[in-house]
Structure formats: structure tokens, C-alpha cells
Amino acid sequence: xxxxxxxxxxxxxxxxxxxxxxxxxASFSQPDRIIQLPGQPQVGFQQFSGYVTVDEKKQxxxxxxxxxxxxxxxxxxxxxxxxxxxxxxxxxxxxFSENGPFRxxxxxxxxxxxxxxxxxxxxxxxxxxxxxxxxxxxxxxxxTINDEITARxxxxxLQRWFLKFPQFQQRDLFITxxxxxxxxxxxxxxxxxxxxxxxxMFNLKGIALGNPVLEFATDFNSRAExxxxxxxxxxxxxxxxxxxxxxxxxxxEYYRDSVSPVCSRIMSDVSRxxxxxxxxxxxxxxxxxxxxxxxxxxxxxxxxxxxxxxCVEDExxxxxxxxxxxxxxxxxxxxxxxxxxxxxxxxxxxxxxxxPTISIVGLLVKEGVPVLIYSGDQDSVIPLTGSRSLVHGLxxxxxxxITVPYRVWFEGQQVGGWTQVYGDILSFATIRGASHEAxxxxxxxxxxxxxxxxxxxxxxxxx
Length: 463
Known about the structure:
The chain is an alpha/beta fold. It folds into 2 domains: 3-215 and 353-455, Alpha/Beta hydrolase fold, catalytic domain (Rossmann fold, 3-Layer(aba) Sandwich); 216-309, Rossmann fold. Helix content is 34%, strand content 18%. The protein has helices at 8-18, 90-99, 147-164, 181-198, 216-229, 235-241, 247-254, 261-274, 312-320, 323-328, 358-366, 384-398, 438-441, 443-455, and strands at residues 47-55, 60-67, 78-82, 102-105, 108-111, 121-126, 135-136, 173-178, 204-210, 371-376, 402-411, 414-422, 426-431. Helix 5 packs across helix 12 (384-398) and helix 6 (235-241) packs antiparallel against helix 8 (261-274). The radius of gyration is 21 Å and the shape is globular. The protein starts with 7 loop residues before the first helix and ends in an 8-residue tail after the last helix. Residues 1-26 form the signal peptide.
């Protein structure tokens, strides 16, 4: 019998019987061990990748990549990273473009010296089913995916992943992610807390969300002010875009196939003035004319999203579509002809974007789970102004006092960003000069933020 079909109760019995073997590599994980990725430099840490079945009947399986901490993995926490979209790959975006140990460069991989596995055991999950190498043999499984299904599948994934890696089950666990993971992460954390009340399984110590979608209207409508304040649109267009037809109204109409003439006209003006030659994910960076990178389909419909750097997406797509790489990763393509950064087959319930998750963040804080919301301050897709106002409003609602007044924080001898903390449990921070994908565009500053988050310590006040 495959261990993957065991439920949570069976897992508890298994873990109990393992006893003293909890701190050694479980034999269940060894088939997923990566011997060496093609073109990979020599490293001293272990890597694993493979599948966890979340639904046996429909053969729904989620693909993961796991990089143990570079040093002393036994004592370091476990961090789950989720990219957004919905439909974009945590393997291709998170692991190979942002905060993982390697980045593709031609035929080889090069080390990322600011990888987050310098501080934690990093687990990247391609979710939901239909994203990246994750698959279902039942094609209907990719038709009706929504937030509820995604959260449930992610919970089952974690429960069953611990069967493969029981030595990590009692480890401090943090969940991180960006963009539409502002839906994924809080909803998963809520299910974990509910599950723990029935049977303690998750040692959840905190969540961190980068440029997240938390409240539809606030997040989307802050775009107009960001465009205007950065000189991307005119005064007259700003006035129309913030009053006559704001961005949340446009997106709402677009996904209901009922875009009004006035919204269509205003969005045309906005698109013309901002130009397709400016990266909406980082308005200060040049764009790659030859390629397109979409962190999100839902939050920016009908817009061309240029990637941050010339080669990142192309390099990743080329690398992960190599047969020798897929063999080394224990990955396979099911229902698709090639691996893509963002899924072309996923049919997500796009109107789920209108469901606020800031209230779930509030529930997590009430349960004692530390929360960090951080923003790359050059992102116009989910601008810092919306996130900051949402965090401030939530703190006020929860009656949390300011414990760290708004101030700068440092990375090295430079200002890394700004931060404010409420009640020593709810934090907001910006990463100076960072894009929507902050760990890619500002890796050093993002790593400083990550270290402080894991330790529960204030961001550096001096250089």
C-alpha cells in the first residue's frame, strides 16, 4: 500500500511509531531525492522533488521541490513558498527566479548567494492542480478550481508530505508567498489552525505575504494613485481613473463580460499613457521586448506583463523543458506538451479575487500567528499604498497598538525600506527599489527581511 493514500490519523500512528527515527532522513523520502540537477554546481545540502497525491480517485497530484537548509537543516525551520497567478509556478518563479538556491543560465545552473535556504529548509509547491508539473488524469479537475479547492488540496499536500518527511513535522513552520498567494496562504493557514484543533499536526509560527491581493477594491484602486504619483499617467486620466471608472470596477466588469463604454475608454487612455514599454511589476526597470512574464492573470487582465530581466523566463522555460532535467526532478508532463511558467490549461474561478482575505489575516492574528505584509515599492500591480492602508486598518480594528513606529530599516549601509509594527504580531514593511517579485529584484534586502521575519526580531535600525 502506498503511504500517499494514508489519511491524517494513520499518519499520526506512523509518526508515533517512528520514535527516535524522527531526526534522520525517512526512507519514504529517498525515491524523491535529487542526485544532482543537470549543470548544477556542487553543494552541501540535499534536494528532493516529486509528487504528493491529494486525490486518489481523480489522480490529482501536486509537484514540489524541496531544498534543505545549506547548513544545519536539523535545527532550521521549514518554509513553504507559494507563487500566485492564480496559475503561476512556485518552481519556475519562486525557486528558479527569486529565492531558491539556483538560477538557470544557459546549459547550467548558477548559485544564488542570497537564497533563502541559507536560513531555512525551503519547500516550493506548484499549486493548484494544472500548474507546472502538477497534474490530474481527470481533465475535469482543472475546470472548476477555486480558492476553496486550492486551500483544501494544499492542506492535504502538507499532511501527506509529512509522511515522506516526518522529521520535519514538529519543526517550526512558516508559510510565505506573493501576489495571489494573498489568497492561498491565509486560507491554507486557517485550515491548518482548524485541523490543529482536532489533532495537533502543524507547528505554524508565522506567515509572510509579498505584494499580496488581500482586499479587491483597496488593492486594485491604489493603482491609479501609484501611476499618477510616478508620472505614468496625466492629471486628467488620474481623475477619471480614480472616480468615473476605477480599476476594481473595470476588472469586475471585464470578468463578467460586461465592460462599459466609459471603462473601456478610460482603460484605453491608461494603457496608452503608461505604455507597454514600462514593466508594471517594476516601473523603474527596462522591459524585455522579446518575451512576456505574467505573475498574474487575474489581477491584470488584457495587459502585457513584461518580465523584469532579459533572460529569466526564457532561461527557466528552456531548462525545465529539458528531458534530462525533468528526469532528475522526477517530473512528468500530463495533459500538456510543455512546462510553462504560468498554466495555459488552468480554468480558475476568477471572481474569487473579489473575496477579501484581510479578514482571514485578522483571524490568524487573533490566534496568535505573527503576520508580515511586505511590499516591493516599485510595483504598480499591487502597490504598497493599498497594502499599508489595509494593515493599518486591520490593526485599528483589532485594537493593536503601534510597537515600532514607522521608520527606515537598513541592509548594509543603505536604507532597505520602511517598516511599522503593531502589537509585536502584525508587521508592514517595504523593500526599497523592489518589484512585485521582491526576492528577484532586491535579493539582499529581501533576505534581510526574511531573516528578521524568521527570528521574530525587528528589522535593522542602523547599518
